[in-house]
Amino acid sequence: MRGFLYGIVFTIVVLLAGGFFYLKKGYMNTQADIPPGAIERKLAMGAVDASTERHAPEAKNPIAATEQNLAEGARLYLNHCAGCHGIPSNRESQFGKSFNPPVPQFFSDAPDMPENENFYITKHGIRFSGMPAWGTTLNETQIWMLVTFLSNVDKLPPSALKELEPTGTAPAAPAAPAAR
Ligand code: HEC
């Protein structure tokens, strides 16, 4: 019995040491242009979903989907999000594809999470992914404007769609956030 327990402890120590060595000595590839393996993808994405569900506080969106609010949301989106998440005239942002996992393209695949979760993700970001924490540059009202915009991204009125047409060249990368 004692030998068996020592065996278990020994195996755990070897696995931990192996994992530590693998990470510490740089065997893990951290390039963004190499897709993560199936196990990492499944574990990491499941962990993000579960963490968001657990941590996003229940909250009611205070911003109604009026034409004016959607146009305001569209302006915020064009300035801060469009470079990564796409616009109607550029549904599949090339820049968004330079991330791994690739940035969700909201004009091809509208976000379908509950609004409190979209608020939580927009405010706090997603570590290790490229999704910034916007709570440091946008206030809560602006973030709710964006959440309302995202909930209506597949049924925007013409006035909001007009805001999404960039003047001049399309943003290749997100513009620097405006001061609060
Ligand atoms: C620098 C690129 C970048 C910018 C700019 C950016 N995002 Fe993201 N966003 C990401 C990435 C990458 C993910 C996916 C992370 C993942 O798969 O875990 C993401 C995911 C999201 C999600 C979760 C979507 C889902 O279905 O899981 C929401 C909501 C979101 N972003 C909203 C926004 C909003 C709103 C803005 C602008 C205020 C914004 N993002 C700006 C890169 C960006």
Could you characterize the architecture of this molecule?
With 180 residues, the protein is mainly α. The protein has one domain: Cytochrome c-like domain (Cytochrome Bc1 Complex, Chain D, domain 2, Orthogonal Bundle). Helix content is 48%, strand content 0%. The chain contains seven helices and no strands. The protein has helices at residues 2-24, 38-55, 67-80, 82-85, 115-124, 140-151, 158-163. Helix 3 packs across helix 6 (140-151) and helix 5 packs across helix 6 (140-151). The radius of gyration is 21 Å and the shape is elongated. The mean pLDDT is 92. Heme C (HEC) is lined by residues 48, 80-81, 83-85, 99, 101, 103-104, 111, 113, 118, 121-122, 126, 129-132, 134, 146, 174.
Q: How many strands appear in the DSSP assignment? A: 0
CATH superfamily grouping:
Cytochrome c-like domain
End-to-end C-alpha gap = 65 Å
CATH architecture descriptor: Orthogonal Bundle
**What is the residue-averaged pLDDT?**
92
User: Which oligomerization state do the chains in this entry correspond to?
Assistant: single chain
- The percentage of residues in β strands lies in under 5%
The main β sheet shows up as: none
What is the topological layout?
Blueprint: H1 2-24, H2 38-55, H3 67-80, H4 82-85, H5 115-124, H6 140-151, H7 158-163
Helix pairs in contact: 3-6, 5-6
Features:
180 residues, 0% strand, mainly alpha, 48% helix, Cytochrome Bc1 Complex, Chain D, domain 2, binds heme C, single chain
Summed up, what is this model?
Helix content is 48%, strand content 0%. The protein has helices spanning 2-24, 38-55, 67-80, 82-85, 115-124, 140-151, 158-163.
